[in-house]
Design a protein that fits this description.
Chain B: InterPro entries: Thiolase, Thiolase-like, Thiolase_C_2. Chain A is of the alpha/beta class. Chain A contains 11 helices and 15 strands. Chain A has 2 domains: 131 residues, no CATH class; 242 residues, Rossmann fold, CATH 3.40.50.720. Chain B starts with 11 loop residues before the first strand and ends with a strand. Classes of the chains: A alpha/beta (413), B alpha/beta (392).
Chain lengths: 413, 392
């Protein structure tokens, strides 16, 4: 039974901020099969293509038949907790600061035995449900949950290390003029965020949906034009130490590729808004977030980018836009590496065409802004790194994995 | 009694038990400790270093060196060489290989040595870099090291067989009593059952006095043929039998027995003795619960009766079941791979009658066991050997 976490008290400015430490990071290359699973919220184990048995930890040959054909496949999540222990004096700084820390040995119904972090409501001899999570060093770890729902489940101390739950955290949504931004604000408030700062460029200019934001409890409109370096820096000087989660909702969609456009002015705008805007935000807010990765209940926890799934494969009808998104995707990997020492996760949410004005001529299915907002919350709560929202995004993901050349040809229609 | 088809160790003897007294922390390297042990071997046996024509080395902290680098380092020219990275099973495994080498005249005098240093950060580095499965699937989970892994095994064992902390504590307390007679033991204060039970928890149910203290030190012995020992006028013990097993009982969901249980018939059949005949027993005591498991698996009692066995017996030097007479790793210290040698070297001293203050009266038959390498969820390597002194 878990006590609900309490709202954090106001921080004493005279006290030193505890610096983040990382749990052990080294892994074998094969073991990163679990990193991929954890990034997408899947539970995958190696399964032998020859004899069908499951194996764990990551192996190079099947321990039942010595076949090298060990593929990572989605596996049944159910197991039984055989034994548990509480590490009270670990040798590693990260765990020492968080001790006592509970771990256990889980016998999976599908065969292997897994050492796992335990949710506090897991009991010896009882069934558990397993997941792979990304820990504060960004590496995959096995996590055992009780089989059913328990009260205040998400408030478990060890689980909260694996996630970026918005509860009691302060969030910056960078663009409140967009529908996605406004839906994100509502979803994050509903998820228990303490404060949602909403960036609006030139806030004196009225905009649709403004009444949903202005004067609402726990929502603060702040001046932010991400494409403007000084604007981002000014805001960070004001609230940079209070941003626990940053949702980069920058949106700049224009149709067209290369040959039917004249000159580079539109492309330059796309780069200014999406790519350089991302850089401005990262340089303004990233350093403080990286510093505050272990700063109590409302430590800095996540950076979220909303990207077009065409960042992964160029869609010539929106070809230059696709390229600007690809640049942002690449930059997100750089940001992920640089935020990693702080334990701050970077979550990329990939969406197909959204049901907004700039995709007006695109036939359905299109993604509703509200679905993106809900995916942001569930991704943060689940501690994910990659999220595909909507049918188009999911299809592109699968087709890219199956045959990138086929996808390239078929996007040219 | 089980029949064995294995070739007897006829004519194989062990001599010159060497212990380089342990220290908690050392600024010297593993190579320094191994060098001291080799020097002591040569001095004790009254031979020249050039008489050593076989070398078997175990260490966790030699850095990039293996046995071959050590030959040049120490000016040895050998025709038989082995490096054995089996942790707590290294001494038994090394002895087995060396015995066959001298028996077949591949070598005449094999020096078996284990040594490790312990700098202030050595132990953490060893934990971090122990094995691939450990790196991938154990260390990132609380970084509790062997304590956490053995805690899971201990908890399951104790629950399954109704073992209490007090039962396990009898082993640790008796070993401390023995250690008080060993001037080289790092633990010098008496340990009562009350103190044992009141110790601070490390990783439940493992408490402070269930854990060994990492330290620096070295242990060694010589393996040769009987006639070589005679020509050197060296007191020596005969090797009667050995067993070794790795990754036994892989289908047990959790470890409740080690590989000994698979080979125990062989061990006693080859030696031609029964468990009751043994005068002194040296188990591998990285945790007392693992010792209790060995009492069962080595045939002193049935599975699940280990707790009753320790309640019924006095495990001290003067008791009815003299066990880990030097104090064992729990009270002497765990000098890395030398911890594997501690019991075997002490057992050798016992049957040679040279154990001094820890000597068991009239000891002539000793068993020493080894256990090592908690690669993932269980100790993988196990072994045991039976030695007979000159009086038998």
């Amino acid at each position: 039974m878990i006590e609900p976490i309490k709202p954090p008290r106001r921080k004493n400015p005279l006290l030193r901020t505890r610096l983040p430490a990382s749990p052990p990071r080294p892994r074998s290359r094969t073991s990163h099969g679990f990193t991929r699973a954890a990034a997408e919220g899947r539970f995958m184990l190696q399964s032998c293509e020859a004899c069908g048995s499951f194996a764990y930890p990551a192996r190079e040959a099947c321990p039942s038949c010595l076949s090298a054909g060990l593929a990572f496949v989605d596996a049944p999540r159910r197991g039984t907790l055989l034994a548990e222990t509480t590490a009270r004096v670990p040798s590693d700084v990260y765990f020492r600061e968080r001790a006592p820390w509970r771990i256990g040995l889980v016998k999976m119904d599908c065969g292997p035995t897994i050492v796992a972090h335990l949710h506090a409501d897991c009991a010896e001899g009882a069934p558990v449900r397993m997941s792979f999570q990304l820990d504060k060093s960004g590496q995959a770890v096995a996590f055992a949950h009780p089989e059913g729902e328990t009260p205040n489940m998400a408030d478990d101390k060890q689980w909260r290390e694996m996630t970026a739950d918005p509860k009691f955290r302060r969030v910056l949504v960078t663009n409140g003029r967009s529908v996605i931004g406004q839906e994100a604000v509502a979803a994050l408030k509903a998820a228990g965020a303490k404060t949602v700062f909403v960036g609006v460029a030139e806030p004196w200019r009225p905009f649709a949906g403004e009444r949903l934001l202005r004067g609402q409890d726990g929502i603060e409109i702040v001046t932010l034009d991400a494409a403007d370096e000084k604007s981002a820096a000014d805001l960070a000087a004001d609230i940079g130490g209070k941003v626990d989660i940053l949702i980069n909702t920058t949106e700049y969609v224009r149709p067209g590729g290369l040959l039917d456009r004249r000159g580079t002015s539109i492309a330059r705008d796309e780069i200014d808004q999406a790519y350089l805007g991302f850089i401005n935000l990262a340089q303004a807010f990233g350093p403080a977030m990286r510093m505050r990765g272990a700063d109590g209940i409302n430590n800095s926890a996540a950076w979220v980018n909303i990207l077009s799934v065409y960042a992964l494969a160029n869609w010539p009808a929106f070809g230059a836009y696709s390229a600007s998104q690809a640049a942002c995707l690449s930059l997100s990997h750089c940001l992920r590496a640089e935020l990693r020492p702080g334990g701050v996760r970077v979550m990329n949410l990939f969406a197909g065409p959204v049901d907004t004005e700039w995709f007006q001529t695109v036939p359905p299915p299109k993604v509703a802004p509200r679905a993106i907002a809900q995916a942001i919350v569930s991704g943060l709560r689940g501690g994910l790194e990659e999220l595909y929202v909507g049918d188009v995004a999911e299809e592109i993901r699968q087709r890219l994995a199956a045959n990138p050349k086929a996808l390239e040809r078929e996007l040219d229609r | 009694m089980t029949k064995t088809l294995r070739t007897p160790y006829d004519g194989v003897v062990i001599a010159a038990p060497v212990t380089i007294p342990y220290v908690r922390y050392s600024i010297e390297s593993a190579q320094w400790w191994i060098g001291r042990a080799l020097s002591a071997l040569v001095a004790q046996a009254g031979i020249k270093a050039s008489d050593i024509d076989g070398l078997c080395v175990s260490s966790f902290t030699m850095g990039t060196d293996s046995g071959v680098g050590l030959t040049q380092h120490f000016g040895l020219c050998v025709r038989w060489l082995d490096t054995i990275p089996l942790g707590g099973a290294s001494a038994i495994a090394g002895l087995r290989k060396a015995a066959r080498a001298v028996q077949a005249h591949d070598a005449d005098i094999v020096a078996c040595v284990a040594g490790d240093t312990n700098h202030v950060d050595s132990f953490r580095l060893t934990l971090e870099n122990f094995s691939r499965f450990n790196q991938d699937a154990v260390y990132p989970y609380g970084a509790g090291g062997a304590n956490a892994s053995f805690a899971l095994i201990a908890r399951n064992y104790m629950r399954t067989f109704g073992v209490t902390r007090e039962d396990v504590g009898r082993i640790a307390v008796a070993q401390r009593t023995n250690a008080l007679r060993n001037p080289h033991a790092l633990m010098k204060a008496p340990l009562t059952m009350e103190q044992y039970l009141a110790a601070r928890p490390i990783s439940d149910p493992i408490h402070l006095f269930d854990c060994v203290m990492p330290c620096a030190g070295a242990e060694a012995f010589l393996v040769m043929r009987e006639e070589t020992a005679a020509s050197l006028d060296l007191p020596a013990a005969r090797l009667l039998s050995t067993i070794e097993r790795h990754n036994a009982f892989a289908d047990d969901p959790m470890q409740v027995r080690g590989g000994w249980a698979m080979d125990i018939g062989d061990l006693y059949a080859m030696a031609g003795v029964k468990p009751d005949d043994l005068d002194v027993v040296q188990t591998y005591d990285d945790y007392p619960v693992i010792t209790m498991m060995q009492f069962e698996d080595l045939g002193f009692c049935k599975k699940g009766e280990g707790a009753e066995f320790v309640r019924q017996h006095d495990l001290t030097i003067d008791g009815d079941f003299p066990h880990n007479t030097s104090g064992g790793q729990l009270s002497v210290g765990q000098a890395g791979a030398a911890g594997a040698y501690l019991g075997l070297v002490e057992g050798l001293r016992q049957v040679l009658g040279t154990a001094g203050p820890t000597q068991v009266r009239n000891a002539s038959l000793a068993l020493a066991s080894g256990f090592g390498m908690i690669n993932y969820d269980r100790g993988l390597a196990s072994g045991a050997a039976i030695l007979a002194g000159p009086s038998r």
